[in-house]
Write a structure and sequence with these properties.
The structure is a single chain. With 455 residues, the chain is an alpha/beta fold. The protein has a single domain, classed as Alpha-Beta Barrel (Anaerobic Ribonucleotide-triphosphate Reductase Large Chain), CATH 3.20.70.20. 44% of the residues lie in helices and 18% in strands. The chain contains 16 helices and 14 strands. Strands 1, 2, 3, 4, 5, 6, 7, 8, 9, 10, 11 and 14 form a twelve-stranded mixed beta sheet that branches. Strands 12-13 form a two-stranded antiparallel ribbon. Helix 9 runs antiparallel to helix 10. The radius of gyration is 21 Å and the shape is globular. The mean pLDDT is 90.
């Protein structure tokens, strides 16, 4: 645990007041494996009571810490064991009822989101998985705080293309059922390759079966702080100097996050888990990953050189974080959600940023195609093809990639989708008109790459 001196404290105060440094999320990770029961109502009661027992003071203690340390804690969240696994024990697989139970207890304990309405189907589906997938659109349409994720691929298993095909249909339905909110249901649903079991960020957070009974995972964000540090460098500074200042800044951000995380875990009387040092932007001006690219010397996100800049940023953030803490985990790097980043929104509006360029950038960043709005009449199979491309990048490169894409009902290219809050807004981005249907309809499984045979 790093020791704060007076200089560090003053610098941290300046980061908070001027450059939007915050604890983006405190996420209670909780195993629900012992909540399984043949009766879905008994299972739901067990889930409700266990979550209530462990998280009843999460929001209260987080607010107290925010006041004591004057460090903003933006979100309080819960990540649970994938409900597809817990609910599979029920003779009647009423996953909608379980989702609504999650929503009810999330409201009771006053957390912003609850993750774990999830399935892990990278190699295929069980009977329970199939029933679960069918329930996702209605579950997201009838709840406010529930987030869903589906892992479709890993570098060891390959890509479940039947699952990819199905997810295109599910995303379309989730958007259509929430058409009055610009397809918000799809904004709470993410498809993963190589999903992370200790990720505190939504919509992909869940408590993996290899995780402890409970833990407190912290997500720290500070793109504004990193941007300001780079702007303080002379324009003649070489990229090695830029990388070094990013590392130093990431170190400071990480120590701040771990300080808060350990204190909150202590008050909750649960173990401290990991600190996820991800540069997660918000729609606020000055809290943008894309603005970091501009500080580095690019005219706008999407310009030639953007992928290189992102690669260096991601690497430097991770290096600085691991020097500050032995418990860096989750995703840790840079997020590039279009709707949640003011300058990414502007780049998308101007046409500088396209889905193709975002796909290239995801080969070096922490997530993938994130919070992208596309025309509502985009076919389910085209969405599946977009997902397949991202799964392939993650599988081959042995990294996490993801797709959170929203086919906004009744809107076309150039229109604006508005989700509100941290989810922000973004222009409807064009997709290719070329047809991928035959390829996607082949389904089956894309075999794992040769480097998976490393036993």
């Amino acid at each position: 645990m790093a020791i704060f001196n007076t200089k560090n404290i003053i610098e941290t105060i300046e980061m908070i007041k001027t450059h939007h440094l915050d604890i983006r999320t405190v996420t209670l990770s909780l195993s629900l494996r012992d909540c399984a029961d043949p009766d879905y109502k008994v299972c739901a009661d067990k889930i409700y009571n266990k979550i209530l027992s462990y998280s009843k003071n999460l929001s209260k203690f987080a607010d107290e810490l925010e006041d004591e340390f004057s460090i903003p804690i933006v979100n309080k969240r819960i990540a649970a064991t994938p409900i597809s696994l817990v609910g599979e024990s029920c003779s009647e697989k009423n996953y909608i009822y379980l989702a609504q139970t999650l929503d009810r207890v999330a409201q009771e304990v006053n957390v912003d989101f609850i993750g774990g309405f999830s399935a892990l189907v990278e190699k295929g589906c069980t009977v329970g998985d199939r029933a679960f997938l069918e329930c996702i659109p209605e579950a997201l349409a009838t709840t406010k705080r529930v987030c869903s994720s589906v892992n479709l691929a890993t570098s060891k298993a390959g890509i479940n293309m039947l699952g990819v095909l199905k997810m295109g249909e599910i995303i379309k339905e989730a958007a259509n059922l929430t058409a009055d909110a610009d397809g918000l249901g799809a904004a709470k649903l993410v498809c993963f390759c190589n999903s992370v079991t200790d990720n505190p960020f939504m919509a992909g957070a869940y408590c993996g079966v290899n995780e402890p009974e409970c833990a407190l995972n912290i997500g720290v964000s500070g793109p504004g702080v990193v941007c300001a540090a780079i702007k303080d460098l002379p324009k003649t500074a070489d990229l090695g100097e830029v990388a070094n200042i990013i590392k130093k800044t990431a170190f400071k951000i990480t120590t701040t996050g771990e300080l808060i995380g350990r204190e909150l875990a202590k008050r909750l009387d649960i173990p401290f888990g990991v600190i996820d040092l991800s540069l997660a932007p918000t729609p606020e001006v000055g809290d943008s990953v894309a603005e970091i690219f501009q500080a580095m010397g690019l005219e706008q996100a999407g310009a030639h050189g953007t992928t290189c800049a992102l690669a260096m940023l991601n690497d430097a953030v991770k290096k600085g974080g691991v020097m500050a803490s032995s418990y860096v985990g989750g995703l840790s790097g840079a997020f590039i959600p279009v709707s949640e980043d003011n300058q990414m929104i502007q780049a998308a509006k101007s046409g500088a940023l396209t889905i193709d360029k975002l796909e290239a950038m995801t080969s070096v960043c922490s997530v993938g195609l994130d919070m992208i709005a596309i025309p509502g009449d985009t076919s389910a199979k085209t969405i599946s093809a977009i997902i397949a491309d991202e799964m392939a990048i993650g599988m081959i490169n042995k990294k996490t990639t993801a797709v959170r894409i929203i086919p906004v009902p009744n809107k076309k290219v150039g229109d604006l989708a508005v989700f509100g809050g941290l989810l922000g807004e973004c222009p409807i981005m064009p997709v290719h008109n070329l047809n991928s249907d035959v390829f996607i309809e082949r389904s089956g499984r894309v075999p794992a790459p040769i480097h998976s045979l490393n036993n």
